Each structure stands twice: as C-alpha cells, then as structure tokens.
Amino acid sequence: MNRAFKPARRRAIVATAVATATFLAGTMLPAAPAFAQTPHKPRVALVMKSLANEFFLTMENGAKDYQAHNSSKFDLVTNGIKNETDTAAQIQIVEQMIVSKVDAIVLAPADSKALVPVVKKAVDAGIIVVNIDNRLDPDVLKSKDLNVPFVGPDNAKGAEKVGDYLAQKLKAGDEVGIIEGVSTTTNAQQRTAGFKAAMQKVGAKIDSVQSGEWEIDKGNAVASAMLNEYPNIKALLAGNDNMAIGAVSAVRAAGKQGKVYVVGYDDIDAIKPMLKDGRVLATADQYAAKQAVFGIDTALKAISEHKKQSDLAGVVETPVDLVTK
After folding, report:
1. Can you give the CATH number for the domain in which 222 is found?
2. Distance between CA 103 and CA 257 in Å, rounded?
3. How far is residue 246's CA from residue 227's CA, in Å, rounded to a whole number?
4. 82 and 122 together in one domain
5. The predicted structure's pLDDT at residue 119
6. Quick one: pLDDT at residue 39?
7. Torsion of CA 235, 236, 240, 245, to 10 degrees
8. Average model confidence (pLDDT) for the chain?
9. Same domain flag for 70 and 146
C-alpha cells in the first residue's frame, strides 16, 4: 500500500472510533446530563430581584455553588437590583445581558408585566429565557406572542398551607390583616389569594390588604398602621419573611406580643429564631437555592437540544412546604 495514504486512513479509523464511542455514550449512559455534550460552554445569566433580600442571596449562592460543581458545563453571571421596586434597573440589566450575548437568561422579574417587552427583545435576539420565582403575566406574554416557561412553586398553594396552619389558632369572626408584596407581581397576588382562601375557610374577617413591597421597613410601617386602625386584629399574614420581620417589630412596639400572630413566607435564616421563640407562627419554604438550579437546568437542556423558545414547556412546578416551630 502507498505510504502516503496511511495517515489519511489512520485519521479515518480514529474518527470512526470516536464517532462510535460518542454514539455508545449517548445511548448507553442516559444518566449523563444532556447538556454535557454541547459544542461550546453556554453562558447563563441569573437576573434576580433585590439582593438586599436574604431569599435572593440564598438563590444566588445556590446557583454559584451549582456552577462551581459543574464548571465544565456552563458559565454563570449573576445580577440583582438594590430594592424590590427598582424595575427600571432590572430592565437595564436584561438589556446589558442581551448586548453581552449570553446564551440564556434565568429571570426572577421585579414586575410581572413591565419586564415582558425586554424579555421579548432577548428572545428575538436568540437568547433562551426561563422565568423563575415570580411568574410573568400570561396575558401580556400572549399579547406579545411569547412562550416563556415558568419554573417555580404554586404560591397560592404555599400561602394557603401557611394560612391553614394559622387558622387552627383562630375562630370565626377573628380579624386579620394581610401584608402583600409588590402588588403588580403575580407571586404577591397569588400569596394573597392563598391567605384569603385559608381565612375564608375558618370564617376570619380580613380587615385590610396593603402592600409592604417585600421590604422590612415598609412591612413594619404597614403592620403598625393596621394595628393602630384595627385594634382587634388577631393575626398579620405577610407575603414574605422580610415583611413578617417588620410586622414582628410592629407587634412588639404596640405592646401586643403574644396577642397577635404573625406568619410569613420564604423560610429565610433570619426568621428561624422567631419561629423558635414563637414571634412568628409559620412560614413556607420554596427552596430558593434549588429554584435557581431548576431554572438553569431548564435553560441548559433547551440549549443542548437546540430548542426554540416556542418549544419550551409552559410550567415546571417546584416544591413549597410549610415550616413551623
């Protein structure tokens, strides 16, 4: 045989062996992550709400830990805003991620409607977008002909679990107040709906629903005003633990410790001592760290399978559990 052909033949044999091994790996090892075979390492942006909220710090840390254990599979960029209502800043962050040409954006939107136009811009740029934590408004998405998968818990179901636990301490006619998150967000609305459903079952009277905008200070101000206006309130149901912490301070300042129950939502570390000593009766754990990971995995799977945004599944429900003393 002519020696000149041997290197070419050898390359062909090696290429065939590699192709065979790759095929066998794909068919015989289904447990391997689907995105392990992607030709380049995707860059995923996690865009959160306020990093002053311990919940989102936990989410960020969980995502970073996951990336550290899977550094060969994807790169991660994390961003958040200074406060829960700084919607314009979050839109700007998404704009920056579009310019920097990330492969995917995993978004916990500060506003369920206001973020939709910039999400469309990202999708139009070929970026996979996955929605976590707070669901983008389905009607607004539909008006833009957008399909954005939501990866997160059933907030109404979680809040109802918390409300049902509180209801064991109440009787028909007892007065309660609900401290809602940012009222334009779907998760705030759903948690309020869950609380209301639980209170209606026991026959409690809901005196007031007011927004504490997810923050400690504003939650404290709202709780103080409710306690002042409705002196017979027996419980304050807060849409997140930050506002519950504010409510606890308001109850203490009003001299009503042990007389007014407080419940929250999120199970952040700062609430645990209050659960232990009874200042907070119950909260809900929606697994902040895991929620980001579920979103990242959804995005990576879409990238590895070369799926279009329109092909992605609508809802991936994640767990939410009651937490008590």
Report:
1. 3.40.50.2300
2. 51
3. 13
4. yes
5. 98
6. 62
7. -100
8. 90
9. yes
